[in-house]
Amino acid sequence: MNAAPADQIRLLDLQALDTRLGQLAHKRKSLPEHAEIQTLEGDLAQHRDLLVAAQTQESDTAREQAKAEQDVDQVRQRAARDQQRLDSGAGMSPKDLENLQHEVASLAKRQGDLEDVVLEVMERREAAQERVKELTGRVESVQAKVNDAAARRDAATEAIDAEVATVTKERELVAATIPDALLKLYDKLRVQQGGVGAARLYQRRCEGCRLELNITEVNEVRAAAADEVVRCENCRRILVRTPESGL
């Protein structure tokens, strides 16, 4: 393939732009905020699970407390009715009065036991409520950190994307000045060779594979016409000759 020396030189400009685009893509993918957000979201999920468990426990103890208080209220109402009957004593035999006194005493003990249950449940519910409050604070704190990291990531991504747009536009302008056949060869090699399709020959060394040309290869390149597109014998990239090639 033949191409004007100036067109071959422009391949180095194009390669520099493609290299920059590759660097920007890597930078975008490797932003430290990505790992930070992933870690924080793992913590957030764990704290949310704990919060749901605590809220469930608080809800369960709330129902348990309501049931215990209902039991106390029922015993209290029955005890009040029995006490009213005992106080009136109307139409009751001594034996009935004695039995009623025992029942009132029994209900009083039962009420005391149930009130103890209510207190115990209330203590557990208060502990659950404190746990819910604590975990809610943790979730909010971690969520705030996630939001902050996401904002920093988005700002960094926006800046990178803006530079990508600028470099891409510049690449289009440079690519438009290169003959189609040469550009197609360059693009093909760039895909095959890890993003580098053209390399400068500097002081008899290919800057693509970093290997120095042997004397036979140097003589072949030296003998090639100025418009001949030469390739590195080692990496097969387009070898661009410049005044600093050492030929």
Automatic annotation (TrEMBL):
Gene3D superfamilies according to UniProt: 1.10.287.1490
Biased composition (Basic and acidic residues): 60-85
Annotated C4-type zinc ribbon domain residues: 205-239
A Pfam family per the record: Zn_ribbon_9
Ranges for domain CT398-like coiled coil hairpin: 14-194
Positions of the UniProt region annotated as Disordered: 58-95
Cleaved signal peptide residues: none
PANTHER family given in the database record: PHOSPHOLIPASE C-BETA-2-RELATED (PTHR39082), SCAVENGER RECEPTOR CLASS A MEMBER 3 (PTHR39082:SF1)
Annotated protein name in UniProt: C4-type zinc ribbon domain-containing protein
Protein species of origin: Streptomyces morookaense
Taxonomic lineage: Bacteria, Bacillati, Actinomycetota, Actinomycetes, Kitasatosporales
